[in-house]
């Protein structure tokens, strides 16, 4: 016997030792702390102990950091970084994202499902212990077991809580976050390799929707799909939980009540399906409507200047209001579907519980249900509610994720740009019997479209560009010069033949490209020039000097560190071209491809760039291929000439046999020197003043009472607010009545349940109506203001910020603000009820309740501070990802020739890691606060039970207290998390409210006479113009007079103030002194709309709208086809009817126009804008370099057209770099440094040998100009 006891004792000791060692093992870290090469700590999860991992204590350090300013979170662990995630690649069109993700991450999913099963079992352990506890209190002989069941309740709740939050952490850290990172990278990787089909009219619809669709994939579809992969286990978990709830219900109420509940549950599922189906259809329509709105808004924001030039604010406001109303109707349907789901979520568990309770009480003797069944039933109701409510949500998420997956699969399966370039063994760039066309888009567009709209193509090309020399490509406007250059870059479809180019390292074409409309990054000017290359100071300075950028740097507020905005929006057209050229020169590419880069430069700067950059030391030994119309300047220094003839045949020949005079090489007159200390000080003050000007038009984004007041005012004012608050209180009172009547009176319980449902319906409808009113009113307000903002605001505000207000922030206002606010208010009322129950139960429980509230508030404060930091980091990194994506997609035809794709991929990896870091810490802190709240609630429940047992509280009172205390953790966490979400959403609402209160241009003034201007006379008196009172004047005390019907040219070097003068004539910049009179009326006294709608203006960089040629010529569809065709014919764009199906490069009224007119050349866009003004018969026409990108023949045609305009009495004001455009005009105004230096007839100015004479002598057309001026002088 002693031997057996010894063995038993020995086994017990071994068991205790094993348990002790196991527990001790959980206190040792798995590895030492890890740091990045720069000494920054790496995420500590894998370096922490098992105890810290499961208790989430390992994140306390990061939580403490997040509460500080300028917090820098720990770096991602190696295994969670974007670079270590495999790139998603769908091998074939039959491959699916589901299959790929499941195959790659099946271990994570298996872990989720295993933990899910354990949690499902543990979920009902605590209610079971409560049942046993209350039963032991009801029976005197079992009271000694009460303490055991109380401890078991606490232990089971702790186990269930730890397993639950471990599962939730895994679902995001190992599934949701890394899968989204993979999806973003896959979409970006694909976008950099897709065909750039925006230049072909056959794919207008593709190009029209490509960018917004990709943006939606990035911002919406990746989120939804990754979310479902994270919560995929919830559906089987909910079904299992529902099954276990049924078993537990059988234990509480017997088979009759359980059968009734099962029958009602089965009857609910058809309704569940209908609810899910209805919400899914509503969401699908909403997605389509939002895509349409984003396309329209994006197009409007990129064309804001054009809209202002032509006083099109009202029609565009109406157009935006129409697409917005379509979206709001879909939002309303989603609200209705969501409300039905919300009501059903409340009603379905109440129906199940009511059926079970009524059946049981009708069969139970005395009609009462025991206390030991009632309060566990109260605890079971949330599980029923969660299961029945979550199942349709998860099914909807699955259907949404399936739709998201299909959209992403369609994008990832799009056709990529195939390599059409072959390595050149000789190092020469050669075309061998090549036939080329613009990229046709992916195969999904269908062959029928290709047959319906013939692609523009060039055939039979045989060219041999000499190595290390300059070659010139010449031809009429729209003949295909850009297509030929695109083929040399590999950015076209090769239909036949072969193209050979020199390769770097035998793999990558060594080509630098400068497009006709330069692509620049939203970065500093220096970063744009370096373009990822290391800085070599001497070479960098040499490039700046060659591109004449030193004077521009002196004028910029931060020199070459100035942020130039997306596409270089803060630079002039000429500056953008020279920065893009500097990027090409700084690169080491042996081949430079240049598309008409001299068209945007004035004569003096163009000559400097040509002689110092294109034919200077930096280009020595480099092959240069340049499309240009300026043959007089370029041809003498070119060794090869490519001509595209009128019949679209192409010939190439050397220039040795051509008799050409070499033009004089002139230097730019401004030698740049480093700024002195005084100059830097002045520049700094100017920059600060500019910053203040930009800040005047924005409001702080704090979620203060002003934002709430503005929002509720838009939602319906005081009446809406009072009804809203009354509905919140009524809902909670009805809920309390329902809980209190479940045992005393089943009929009252049924009535109060019905009242809860009705109040939920009414409150949701009222809330939805107010939300729609606020959404409609605020969007209308921001639309009206943004369309009418001053020019300085448009130039200083990034397009991305404006787009965010109209998309992400507006979506928050539409969907989340009021619903999240209602959720927070509900939680506050519930917490008050729970606290009241704790205070009511006993004076001892009152102390415990107050202590718990204090601890919860302290934890909540830490969480909210950290969450705010994380939310800001996430918003910032998301904006950076979108900025890089939109910039890269628009510049893919420049990035690929530079061989910079991999560098942009690496940059995206870094930005995705920053987003993953923010998202990881968001869920880390979210799980931490939830775990703390749950453990505090368990402590609260156990404490309430212990106090009740010590002071012998009645079982009914104790059960009532335990039922409410068990809901404390969920309510408190929902409140804390809801307040964090509300702060984020109100941040979006704050941005919308700020935009709705912007100060627009002054829209007041007098109505202009009906026929004004009738003559076209114009006078300026002492005109001084500045873009802001705090900035230096752009025009200084100028005066001039223009007679009715005169043709006046405005000339001068870059920065002279030519464009500023044209803007002043339209009041796009307001004068600080002086006045402008048109037909005797001071333009500052009349309404802006009247002024701009009656003066025609064509800018240097015209913007076209998506649609057709007809819709671009006639916005309101008021004119006949004959009138429109005549305008097209006058500018040389109308195709002959018998040549419609032939390759002509011309257009019909039904020819499609892509967004921005990207399927037309720059010159063709200018001509179409000129045709637009010819059909409206304005008395005053202003052209700002409107023919800079057309060939000389087309320019002569335009001159003839303009001469006809003078004959019918129109006054023409033309800004021109190309002097041959204005040399035959009635009068010239020569500007320099914002002042008029000469004014008079061209022939008279030429004879004076002043500034105009100097411009003529520096021009490549000086022989033509001299002959023309001599002829005009002799004819007078």
UniProtKB/TrEMBL annotation:
| UniProt-annotated stretches for the region Disordered | 675-697
Cite the CDD domains for this sequence: ABC_6TM_VMR1_D1_like, ABC_6TM_VMR1_D2_like, ABCC_MRP_domain1, ABCC_MRP_domain2
Location of the ABC transmembrane type-1 domain:
114-400, 748-984
**Which cell locations does it reside in?**
Membrane
Q: Which domain of life is it from?
A: Eukaryota
Any one GO MF annotation of this record: ATP binding
Pfam families per UniProt? ABC_membrane, ABC_tran
ABC transporter domain span: 429-671, 1018-1258
Membrane topology per the entry is:
Multi-pass membrane protein
InterPro entries, alphabetized: AAA+_ATPase, ABC1_TM_dom, ABC1_TM_sf, ABC_transporter-like_ATP-bd, ABC_transporter-like_CS, ABC_transporter_C-like, P-loop_NTPase
Per UniProt, the keywords (alphabetical) are: ATP-binding, Membrane, Nucleotide-binding, Transmembrane, Transmembrane helix, Transport
Q: What is its main location?
A: membrane
Q: Name one GO cellular component term.
A: membrane
Report the family membership.
Belongs to the ABC transporter superfamily. ABCC family. Conjugate transporter (TC 3.A.1.208) subfamily.
Kindly provide the name given to this protein in its UniProt entry.
P-loop containing nucleoside triphosphate hydrolase protein
């Amino acid at each position: 016997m002693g031997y057996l006891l010894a063995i038993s004792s020995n086994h017990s000791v071994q068991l205790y030792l094993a348990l002790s060692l196991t527990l001790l093992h959980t206190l040792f870290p798995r590895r030492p702390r890890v740091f990045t090469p720069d000494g920054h700590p790496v995420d500590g999860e894998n370096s922490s102990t098992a105890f810290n991992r499961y208790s989430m204590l390992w994140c306390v350090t990061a939580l403490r950091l997040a509460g500080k300013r300028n917090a820098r979170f720990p770096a991602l662990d190696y295994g969670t970084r974007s670079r270590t995630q495999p790139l998603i690649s769908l091998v074939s069109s039959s491959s699916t994202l589901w299959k790929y993700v499941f195959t790659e991450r099946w271990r994570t999913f298996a872990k989720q499902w295993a933990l899910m099963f354990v949690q499902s079992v543990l979920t009902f352990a605590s209610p079971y212990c409560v049942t046993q506890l209350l039963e032991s209190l009801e029976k005197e002989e079992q009271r000694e077991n009460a303490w055991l069941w109380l401890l078991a309740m606490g232990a089971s709740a702790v186990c269930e809580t730890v397993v639950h939050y471990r599962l939730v952490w895994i679902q995001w850290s190992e599934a949701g976050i890394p899968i989204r990172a993979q999806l973003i990278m896959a979409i970006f990787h694909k976008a950099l390799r897709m065909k750039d089909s925006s230049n072909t009219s056959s794919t207008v619809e593709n190009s029209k929707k490509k960018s917004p669709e990709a943006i939606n994939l990035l911002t919406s579809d990746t989120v939804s799909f990754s979310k479902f992969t994270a919560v995929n286990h919830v559906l089987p978990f909910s079904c299992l939980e529902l099954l276990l709830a049924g078993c537990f219900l059988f234990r509480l109420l017997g088979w009759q009540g359980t059968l009734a509940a099962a029958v009602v549950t089965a009857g609910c599922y058809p309704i569940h399906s209908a609810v899910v189906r209805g919400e899914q259809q509503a969401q699908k329509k909403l997605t389509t409507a939002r895509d349409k709105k984003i396309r329209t808004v994006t197009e409007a924001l990129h064309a804001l200047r054009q809209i202002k030039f032509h006083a099109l604010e009202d029609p565009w406001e109406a157009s935006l209001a129409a697409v917005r109303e379509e979206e709001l109707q879909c939002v309303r349907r989603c609200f209705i579907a969501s409300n039905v789901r919300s009501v059903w979520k409340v009603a379905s568990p109440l129906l199940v519980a009511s059926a079970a309770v009524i059946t049981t009480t009708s069969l139970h003797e005395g009609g009462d249900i025991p206390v030991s069944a009632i309060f566990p039933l109260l605890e079971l109701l949330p599980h029923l509610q969660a299961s029945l409510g979550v199942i349709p949500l998860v099914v909807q998420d699955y259907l949404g994720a399936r739709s998201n997956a299909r959209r992403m699969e369609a994008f990832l399966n799009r056709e990529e740009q195939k390599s059409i370039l072959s390595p050149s063994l000789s190092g020469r760039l050669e075309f061998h019997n090549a036939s080329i066309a613009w990229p046709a888009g992916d195969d999904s567009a269908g062959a029928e479209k290709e047959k319906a709209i013939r692609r523009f193509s060039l055939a039979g090309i045989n060219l041999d560009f000499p190595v290390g020399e300059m070659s010139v490509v010449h031809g009429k406007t729209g003949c295909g010069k850009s297509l030929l250059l695109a083929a040399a870059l590999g950015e076209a479809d090769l239909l036949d033949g072969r193209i050979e180019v020199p390769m770097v390292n035998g793999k990558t074409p060594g080509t630098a490209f400068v497009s006709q409309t330069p692509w620049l990054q939203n970065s500093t000017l220096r970063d744009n020039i370096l373009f990822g290359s290391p800085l070599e100071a001497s070479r960098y300075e040499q490039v700046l000097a060659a591109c004449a950028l030193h004077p521009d740097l002196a004028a910029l507020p931060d020199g070459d560190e100035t942020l130039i905005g997306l596409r270089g929006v803060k630079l002039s057209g000429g500056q953008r071209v020279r920065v893009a050229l500097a990027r090409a020169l700084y690169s080491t590419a042996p081949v430079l491809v240049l598309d008409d880069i001299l068209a945007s430069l004035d004569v003096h700067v163009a000559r400097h760039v040509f002689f110092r950059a294109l034919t200077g030391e930096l280009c020595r030994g480099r092959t240069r291929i340049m499309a240009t119309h300026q043959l007089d300047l370029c041809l003498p220094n070119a060794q090869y000439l490519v001509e595209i003839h009128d019949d679209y045949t192409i010939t190439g020949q050397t220039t040795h046999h051509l008799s050409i005079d070499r033009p004089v090489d002139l230097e730019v007159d401004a030698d740049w020197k480093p700024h002195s200390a005084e100059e830097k000080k002045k520049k700094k003050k100017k920059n600060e003043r500019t910053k203040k000007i930009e800040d005047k038009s924005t409001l702080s984004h704090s979620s203060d009472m002003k934002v709430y007041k503005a929002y509720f005012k838009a939602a319906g004012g005081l009446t809406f607010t009072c009804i809203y608050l009354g509905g919140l209180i009524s809902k909670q009172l009805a809920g309390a009545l329902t809980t209190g009547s479940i045992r005393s009176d089943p009929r009252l319980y049924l009535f109060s349940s019905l009242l809860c449902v009705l109040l939920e319906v009414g409150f949701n409808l009222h809330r939805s109506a107010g939300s729609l009113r606020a959404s409609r009113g605020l969007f209308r307000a921001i639309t009206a203001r943004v369309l009418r903002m001053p020019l300085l605001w448009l130039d200083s505000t990034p397009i991305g910020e404006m787009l965010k207000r109209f998309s992400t922030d507006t979506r928050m206002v539409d969907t989340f603000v009021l619903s999240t606010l209602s959720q927070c208010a509900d939680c506050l009322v519930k917490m008050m009820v729970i606290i009241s129950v704790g205070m009511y139960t006993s004076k001892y429980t009152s102390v415990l309740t107050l202590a718990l509230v204090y601890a919860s508030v302290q934890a909540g404060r830490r969480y909210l501070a950290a969450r705010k930091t994380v939310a800001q980091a996430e918003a910032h990194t998301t904006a950076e990802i979108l900025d890089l994506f939109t910039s890269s997609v628009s510049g893919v035809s420049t990035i690929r020739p530079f061989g910079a794709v991999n560098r942009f991929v690496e940059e995206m990896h870094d930005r995705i890691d920053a987003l993953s870091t923010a998202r990881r810490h968001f869920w880390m802190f979210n799980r931490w606060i939830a775990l703390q709240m749950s453990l505090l609630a368990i402590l609260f429940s156990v404490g309430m039970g212990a106090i009740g047992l010590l002071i012998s509280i009645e079982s009914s009172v104790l059960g009532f207290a335990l039922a409410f205390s068990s809901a404390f953790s969920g309510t408190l966490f929902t409140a804390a998390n809801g307040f964090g979400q509300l702060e984020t959403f109100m941040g979006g609402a704050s941005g919308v409210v700020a935009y709705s209160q912007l100060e627009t241009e002054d829209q007041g003034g007098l109505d202009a006479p009906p026929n004004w201007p009738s003559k076209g006379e114009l006078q300026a008196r002492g005109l001084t113009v500045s873009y802001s009172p705090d900035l230096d004047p752009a025009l200084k005390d100028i005066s001039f007079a223009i007679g009715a019907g005169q043709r006046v040219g405005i000339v001068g070097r870059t920065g002279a103030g030519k464009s500023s003068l044209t803007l002043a004539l339209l009041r796009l910049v307001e004068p600080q002194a002086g006045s402008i009179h048109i037909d005797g009326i001071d333009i500052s006294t009349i309404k802006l709309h009247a002024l701009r709608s009656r003066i025609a203006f064509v800018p240097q960089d015209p913007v076209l709208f998506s649609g057709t040629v007809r819709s671009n010529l006639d916005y309101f569809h008021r004119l006949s086809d004959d009138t429109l065709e005549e305008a097209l014919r006058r500018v040389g764009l109308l195709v002959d009817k018998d040549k419609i199906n032939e390759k002509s490069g011309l257009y019909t009224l039904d020819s499609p126009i892509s967004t921005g007119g990207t399927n037309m050349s720059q010159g063709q866009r200018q001509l179409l804008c000129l045709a637009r003004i010819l059909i409206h018969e304005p008395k005053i026409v202003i052209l700002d370099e409107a023919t800079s990108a057309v060939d000389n023949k087309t320019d002569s045609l335009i001159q003839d057209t303009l001469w006809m305009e003078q004959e019918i009495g129109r006054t023409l004001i033309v800004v021109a770099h190309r002097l041959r455009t204005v040399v035959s005009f009635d009068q010239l105004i020569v500007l320099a440094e914002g002042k008029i230096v000469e004014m008079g007839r061209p022939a008279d100015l030429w004879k004076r040998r002043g500034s105009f004479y100097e411009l003529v002598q520096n021009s490549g057309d000086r022989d033509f100009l001299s002959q023309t001026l001599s002829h005009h002088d002799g004819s007078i």
